[in-house]
């Protein structure tokens, strides 16, 4: 059988041809792969070649460099003022002050400057590139602040209508429509003009700002509440009797508060209770106290009171006050008001006996009679509970004409001058000594700067309003009743001031005074003033006074001896050199 000659001779040639094709394909793959890698390398993170952002060419540059080129290219636009008009007036707006700016990095990223193996991205880099607008960013806080400034300068603040009371009179304030730039519209106009090539002048339009409380709200409030509120008194039916409360009294407790576009009647319950409480005085509770009756302390019992229900008053008053005449009655339930300090509390003070008394004397001077008498009147009857602190300034008050005081001599800078309340220190000294022998705790006292011989040496005190006080604390377990009185002086007799303290005796007090030491001499002062008080001086010294405590009546406490050290400065001799000087 004959063989096919082709089958043997062509087989090697076919295999060789196939191998060439494979290598050719492999070569093409390598070639195109290399070209692709090279294209990726060339493109990197560069912006497509033909890209512009707000008219600035940034194509073909890496992102960071493109952002720098964009910033430089937009510098003139970004830094120029935006020409506007507000209410017809030209206003140049600096973009940065208005919070406008450009995010250069975001603008470049939006234009396609990113590294990628995506063939579409590579194709776009070499053949593409569009025109983009820069990413404008807004600092909201800066924009709002700037807009507020424009509104203040060119606009008008809206004003709410209001209704208030002046005694029995209704006072109204008219509402007023304001004008302001609309934030969203204004921002849109500025953003558009910010980076335009030729923006021209743009108009910023004011819009009406309607007040939350307008004229109709005011009228409605007048009709439904304010006018009826002052039309007639309100009658409170209480304990079978009627009490009238008039508008001039209660409108101080009324107000109309703007709330969610309405004027809402609002009641100050505390003020109203105070007003009504002053009308219902007969039913107020009375605290127990202790007073002297024929020289003996006696408890004055407490008295419960009958008063109105404050919650009922608060709940019903606003409705009642808005009703027409003939219907303006509010019935209140009565309730018992207990005193804050009961009879039992007063008896527990055990104020039963005199525990100390002290008297000082003074020469005639009418100002002394007035000032000492008034101070004693204000102190008399004071009850100190255990732990309470007495303050002479707090009890007597400021020495003024309105408070019943007159001018008299006081010590100032080592000499005598005239001032309101002169002489009150005599009451301070008398009270200090009564406290001293009652065994109470000395909190604050200041001796006179120089020694006054009608006072006990080293045991005296001065006071000055707002600067120097006499204070002591009741550190016993019993109450203290202070009795103070003044016998006026006359041209022929001395006056006297007496302070007596009543309690249950807790200490026996004795005292000693040491010898004077650190003696100092007086100086001579010549004063040329028209008002001058001549004085014969004397020296100063130091002295120590000791208070000794002996417990009595079952008192088991022990207390160390207490030393009071006092330094008296010299009382200078004063010579008045002005021939026209008047000794007041």
UniProtKB/TrEMBL annotation:
InterPro entries linked: Glycopeptide_resist_protein, Vancomycin_resist_VanW, YoaR-like_PG-bd
Domain YoaR-like putative peptidoglycan binding: residue ranges: 122-202, 225-323
Coiled coil: none
Oxidoreductase is among the record's keywords: no
UniProt keyword terms in alphabetical order: Membrane, Transmembrane, Transmembrane helix
Residue ranges crossing the lipid bilayer per the database entry: 20-43
Protein name listed in UniProt: YoaR-like putative peptidoglycan binding domain-containing protein
Source organism (scientific name): Nocardioides glacieisoli
């Amino acid at each position: 059988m004959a063989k096919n000659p082709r089958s043997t001779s062509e087989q090697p040639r076919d295999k060789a041809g196939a191998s060439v094709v494979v290598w050719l394909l492999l070569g093409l793959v390598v070639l195109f792969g290399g070209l692709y890698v090279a294209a990726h390398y060339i493109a990197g993170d560069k912006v497509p070649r033909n890209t512009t952002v707000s008219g600035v060419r940034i194509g073909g540059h890496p992102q960071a460099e493109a952002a720098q080129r964009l910033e430089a290219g937009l510098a003139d636009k970004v830094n120029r003022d935006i020409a506007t008009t507000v209410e017809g007036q030209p206003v140049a707006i600096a973009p940065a002050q208005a919070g406008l700016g450009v995010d250069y990095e975001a603008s470049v990223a939006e234009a396609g400057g990113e590294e990628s193996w995506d063939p579409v991205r590579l194709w776009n880099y070499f053949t593409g590139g569009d025109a983009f607008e820069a990413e404008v960013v807004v600092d909201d806080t800066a924009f709002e602040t700037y807009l507020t400034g424009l509104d203040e300068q060119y606009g008008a603040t809206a004003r709410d209508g209001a209704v208030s009371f002046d005694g029995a009179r209704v006072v109204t304030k008219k509402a007023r429509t304001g004008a302001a730039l609309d934030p969203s519209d204004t921002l849109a106009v500025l953003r558009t003009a910010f980076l335009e090539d030729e923006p021209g002048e743009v108009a910023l339009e004011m819009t009406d700002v309607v007040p939350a409380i307008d004229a109709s709200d005011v009228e409605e409030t007048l009709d439904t509440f304010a006018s009826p509120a002052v039309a007639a008194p309100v009658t409170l039916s209480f304990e079978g009797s009627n009490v009238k409360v008039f508008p001039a009294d209660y409108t101080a407790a009324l107000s109309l508060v703007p709330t969610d576009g309405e004027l809402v009647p609002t009641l100050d319950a505390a003020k109203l209770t105070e007003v009504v409480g002053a009308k219902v005085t007969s039913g107020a509770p009375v605290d127990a106290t202790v007073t002297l009756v024929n020289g003996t302390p006696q408890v004055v019992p407490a008295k419960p009171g009958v008063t109105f229900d404050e919650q009922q008053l608060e709940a019903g008053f606003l409705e009642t006050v808005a009703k027409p005449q003939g219907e303006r009655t509010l019935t209140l339930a009565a309730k018992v008001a207990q005193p804050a300090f009961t009879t039992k509390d007063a008896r527990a003070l055990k104020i039963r006996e005199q525990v100390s008394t002290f008297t000082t004397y003074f020469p005639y001077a009418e100002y002394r009679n007035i000032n000492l008498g008034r101070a004693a009147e204000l102190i008399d009857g004071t009850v100190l509970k255990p732990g309470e602190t007495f303050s002479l300034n707090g009890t007597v008050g400021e020495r003024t004409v309105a408070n019943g005081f007159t001018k008299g001599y006081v010590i100032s800078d080592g000499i005598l001058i005239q001032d309101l309340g002169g002489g009150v220190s005599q009451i301070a000294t008398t009270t200090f000594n009564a406290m001293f022998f009652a065994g109470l705790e000395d909190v604050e006292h200041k001796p006179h700067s120089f020694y006054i011989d009608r006072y006990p040496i080293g045991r005296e005190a001065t006071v000055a309003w707002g600067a120097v006080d006499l204070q002591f604390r009741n550190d016993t377990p019993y109450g203290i009743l202070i009795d103070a009185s003044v016998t006026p002086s006359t041209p022929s007799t001395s006056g006297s001031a007496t302070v007596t303290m009543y309690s249950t005796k807790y200490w026996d007090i004795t005292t000693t005074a040491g010898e004077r030491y650190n003696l100092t001499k007086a100086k001579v002062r010549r004063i040329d003033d028209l008002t001058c008080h001549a004085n014969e001086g004397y020296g100063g010294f130091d002295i120590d006074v000791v208070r000794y405590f002996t417990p009595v009546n079952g008192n088991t406490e022990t207390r160390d001896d207490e030393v009071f050290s006092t330094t008296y400065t010299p009382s200078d001799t004063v010579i008045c050199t002005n021939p026209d000087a008047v000794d007041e």
